[in-house]
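Fill-in record for SDR family oxidoreductase.
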Amino acid sequence: MNKKIGVLGCGWLGFPLAKYLVANKHHVYGSTTSIDKLDLLKENGIHPFHISLSTTEIKGDIQSFLSNIEILIINIPPRLRGNNTESFVDKITLLHAEVKKSPVKKLIFISSTSVYGNVDGTVTEATVPKPSTASGRQLLECEERFLSDESLNTTIIRFGGLIGPNRHPVTMLSKRSNLNNGDSPINIIHLDDCIHMISTIIENDYWNEVFNGVYPLHPSKKEYYTAEAQKRGLPAPDYLHNSSNNSNKIVINQNFIDKSHQLHTSIVS
């Protein structure tokens, strides 16, 4: 069944996601902070909107955007690095107020595994989040804002490190030496798998859920990034031997695995 879906934030993940949804016959509305990108969205079958969130206001016709859709995908990552200390929570608080005034009742909030913090061992959706960074703390607060709103059917996706076209950490790591955490497992996910997860949630009505989004294999950082550097003809990053900062954190997308198994069982039976 064709759905009316809004992608708030048509960037590295949001734009290919929107194109995929269009290709699957959904009516897609997409936002961008760049006026120059509006034509690109339109050319790809996406109804374009110029919308920008700040801590004090939302620029652009947010209500026209929201009034057209039944499902909202919020794909606006916090950018709390370097000197940027703005409140991501304030941005999302303003957005939540606008959503409350709109007909939107189903929502996907793109979050991060950073909400779990520096824990050791296996991490599933049942693990209690203990964020250790400003970004993780603010993401968790925003998650809770939407999840606690009983008027919304909210699903949270906590993605691991994102990789894909023109985005891979090894391009920066290959130039570095004396790196820590070489024996720590990786927790990453490819762009294509992100899109698959989101579309599966929409198609199967997996609402009021929390999902981790991480590739099921977890080689060590040293092993993985050395292999990825060799594939690209880059110098392998240099890791310290016997680093004391190694973590054993392995994030598992247990809920998505369970849902997929249940779906397969119901189809077979």
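KEY FINDING: The first helix runs from residue 14 to 23.
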